[in-house]
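Question (not urgent): is this output format expected?
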Amino acid sequence: MGRVYEAIDESIREFIEAQLVFFVATAPLDGSGHINVSPKGLDAFRVLGPRDVVYLDYVGSGAETISHVRENGRITIMFCAFEGPPKIIRLYGRADVIEPGDSSFGELRRRFASDMEVRSLIRVSVERVADSCGFGVPLYDAQGPRTQLLDWAARKGGEGLHAYQVEKNARSIDGMPALRWVSRE
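Got this back:
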């Protein structure tokens, strides 16, 4: 059933790259704070190496992952097979938030085809790779990616996205700081 791996090998990489959705979980150190789980899609994930991954963090209404990672770095990323053989892969690690003004942003951002504005990249140093059976995960047929986020961002434009982030992404729902550039304005 469940197995722990030394790193992301080629078969795990292929499995990860075949998934259309992944889930990100983080939590603040304060036990009364909110645990966060976010679904992600839109070709936003890349395996950089056996213990190194990154994903695009598109503009959204909350900034929980950013604030939690800034506070304590802990993160878990989960991939589930909704087609084919049942399987779940979890990547446990320590993350860093890389904002557009940071020195490594440009090089990492070029690894993705999407030209949509992102608020950050989340880079993870993977400490544990584990799988489990996924027998309880239902089978689904993917109809394709949703376009609403891309359409919304295009309608807002650069200035609108900037204003939205200032309003929504300065702090988490628990009041923790999130995007650095927003707090400087």
